[in-house]
Amino acid sequence: MEEYQETASEHIRMWSKCLGIIKDIVPEAAFSTWFQPIVPQKWENNTITIQVPSMFFYEYLEEKYFDLLKATLTRVMGKGTKLKYTVLMENTSKTTVNNDGGRISQVSANARFDPFSVQNRQKIDSQLNPNYTFESFIEGSCNKLARAAGLAIAREPGKTAFNPIFIFGESGLGKTHLIHAIGLMTEEFHPEKNILYVNANKFQIQYTDAVRNNTVNDFLNFYQMLDVLILDDIQDFAGKTGTQNTFFHIFNHLHQSGKQLVLTSDREPKLLQGLDQRILSRFKWGLHAELEIPDFQTRKTILLNKVNADGLVIPENVVNYIAETVKENVRELEGVIVSLLAQSTLTNAEINIELAQKVVGKSVNITEKAISIISIQEAVCKYYNLTIKDIQTKSRKREVVQARQIAMYLARKHTKNSLSSIGEQIGNRDHATVLHACKTITDLLDIDKGMKQSLDTIESALR
């Protein structure tokens, strides 16, 4: 194999060739999360040195991608090539790690005192729930990546590749618990930092009040002074152009200043509709971590944790029954325990399988599946054998127009979104178009039995 010259740019060229090979092998999301943030530093003595954002990042690469890295380096640079990591830490140090088992060495640097660092800022109330800690957040395969990344962020907010971290998943799987845990641990490690938890709806109300009171600059200044912004349910920004524009500027300022952003949504970024593409593109800068439905063992551990925390004594067969029966929602699992305790206390009944069946039966009967605009579009498109992209276009084909109008009608019926928000998410239409669609479908229901049957079938699929 031809020997490479050790030029200043050779390491960059060789690493680019490695990335080209890796990109064809790993999924796009994994490539953007774990390989794009890597910075090649030098190539000498048959060793390439790369910089990674954190020790967690290094450990994850070694655990998941060691064989791939080894094979790729051998292919591009030749047999016997060694890989050395430089781990980016706080401003005062960096750590180098050899992947062949060499020892870790700490290299200190001179810390610079900045007389202009923010010292007189008023400490704000973080709005964090002290009960939502990492200790009470049960780890399982359903949340392992998100939890591990959250721990890394808490230790070094703004310093890891996970900025922003975008946590998504269905309601009740623990997103809010996890982001509070990240905030609380960050507060513990960095008490000097200003941390704020806020949900998207409250952010929207604050912004609207600021516009009404002509205090938008104060609103911006407040959010731009934060060190860690934790924003819950960002999908609620859909269709709210003014709020999105303001958040875009806040996001840019915080990110460019090395501050940490922690975001949640009920779906992954590529499925978010009604959000500005400028904002969606920035979500790609960090890590996307999904919270999935927990498996049986994780559900059982969650239940036992709740039982122990409340000082209860519940037979194991009852715990197993609940874990096997209530599968979709962590919040429901804990709610069943609360209901079980209440039923036992109020009626002086023994906690057994019979009582558990009664409580779970009632919980299942009163629990309704959350219906979103995206799920409505999916159901309508499946019924009409279309794609979501079809009804998002300007097509005037009869079947596409009707499917689009039905989606708007059902979104108004089953969600709390405004007409503007519905229109924004279904083809970027205005509120008048949505109103017209709803009237059209309502009129058809009075004269067309086929339309009623179609709607009944689609609504059954949504339940």
Name a few traits of the molecule.
463 residues, alpha/beta, GMP Synthetase, Chain A, domain 3, Rossmann fold, Helicase, Ruva Protein, domain 3, 5-stranded mixed sheet, 19 helices, 10 strands, 53% helix, globular, disordered N terminus
TL;DR of this structure?
By secondary structure, the chain is an alpha/beta fold. It has 19 helices and ten strands.
Task: Lay out the secondary structure.
Elements: H1 10-23, H2 28-34, E1 39-44, E2 47-52, H3 55-77, E3 82-88, E4 93-98, E5 105-108, H4 144-155, E6 165-168, H5 175-189, E7 195-199, H6 200-212, H7 216-224, E8 228-232, H8 241-256, E9 260-265, H9 277-283, E10 287-290, H10 296-309, H11 316-325, H12 330-347, H13 353-366, H14 373-384, H15 388-392, H16 398-414, H17 419-425, H18 431-447, H19 449-462
Parallel strand pairs: 2-3, 6-9, 6-10, 7-8, 8-9
Antiparallel strand pairs: 1-2, 3-4, 4-5
Helix pairs in contact: 1-3, 4-5, 6-7, 10-11, 10-12, 11-13, 12-13, 14-16, 14-19, 16-18, 17-18, 18-19
3D structure, described in words:
It is a single chain. This protein is of the alpha/beta class and 463 residues long. The protein is 53% helix and 11% strand. It has four domains: 10-107, 2-Layer Sandwich (GMP Synthetase, Chain A, domain 3); 144-290, Rossmann fold, CATH 3.40.50; 296-366, Helicase, Ruva Protein, domain 3 (Orthogonal Bundle), CATH 1.10.8.60; 373-462, Chromosomal Replication Initiator Protein Dnaa, Chain: A (Orthogonal Bundle). The chain has helices at 10-23, 28-34, 55-77, 144-155, 175-189, 200-212, 216-224, 241-256, 277-283, 296-309, 316-325, 330-347, 353-366, 373-384, 388-392, 398-414, 419-425, 431-447, 449-462; strands spanning 39-44, 47-52, 82-88, 93-98, 105-108, 165-168, 195-199, 228-232, 260-265, 287-290. A five-stranded mixed beta sheet has the order 1-2-3-4-5. Strands 7-8-9-6-10 form a five-stranded parallel beta sheet, sandwiched between helices. The radius of gyration is 26 Å and the shape is globular. Mean pLDDT is 81; it is low at 1-8 and 89-120.
